[in-house]
Amino acid sequence: MKQFLYKLTLIPELLEESNWTDKENNIVSEHFHALQHLLKNDTLIMAGRTLNNDPSSFGIVVIQVPSEDEAEALMNSDPAVREGIMTAELFPYSVALYNDTFSTR
Q1: Residue 59 has pLDDT above 70, yes or no
Q2: Which domain holds residue 51?
Q3: Three-state DSSP class for 19?
Q4: Global pTM value
Q5: Which residue from 31, 44, 70, 83 could staple onto 39, CB 3.0 to 4.6 Å apart?
Q6: Which of 85, 94, 55, 61 is nearest to 75 (CA)?
């Protein structure tokens, strides 16, 4: 198994909260449920986002899958990416240290 990180960036027009509609909120909800599914299937290592709301903000998803092709397919099937409210970039990754004290599982 190989580890990958994909970096998510909200499209610029959605940095302004007033531009959000029910559609975008529903997509983010689907995105979160998809990540929960990956967690239950032991594919997701961790996911999170920065808490600033400016162009430098981003989220990360760290996964473990058999191949880069599978990682790319998984990233592209993320509802937020698929529906175009976030862009994503994939990187090979390796968790070097992990402190399970902070696990939220």
Answers
A1: yes
A2: 2-102
A3: helix
A4: 0.92
A5: 44
A6: 61
